[in-house]
Amino acid sequence: MITELALERVEFTCGHCWHQWSIDYDVQHYRDGEGRDWEYFSRDGIAVDSPYTPAGAPPCPECGRHWVGRCAARRLIPTPPGALVTPRQPIMDAVGHRPERHGAPLLAARAHRQPDQLGPPASGAGEAMAVEAASPVRKVESQGGAGKGV
Known about the structure:
The protein has 2 helices and 5 strands. The chain is mainly beta. A 5-stranded antiparallel beta sheet has the order 4-3-2-1-5, with no helix packed on it.
C-alpha cells in the first residue's frame, strides 16, 4: 500500500569543481504485506536509487564526479481516496478521458531554475575558520545590565 507520495527537489554541490545543480525526484513510500516500509525514487518516470546515497548520486554535469544530494524542498501529493470531501471526478471512459494528457510533454527532472553558481570558497577562508576554532582565546560577552563589567 502506498503511504506517501511526494515530489522532492534535491540539490547537489560538487566538492571538486563546486558546480551546483538540482533535480526533482518523485518519491513513494510503500508498506508491504509484512509491514515493512520502503522508499522508491524515480526521475523522469525511470526508477533510480536514492539520491541521498552514494549509489544514487548523479554525476556532476561539469566534471562527472558523484556527490550525495540534500533535500531542498518537498511537496506532498495526497494519496487517494482522501477525505470524503476531497474533490474527485469519476472517469467514465478510461481511453477517451482527457486524451491530451498522453501527448503532453513530460516535465523533466531538471525543467526548473537551477541554483546560482557560488563557486569555491574564497582562498584562506577554510584556514581562517580552522585557526579560529583552534584558538584558545575566547570572547566573553557581558551578561548584565548597564554598568556591570565582566
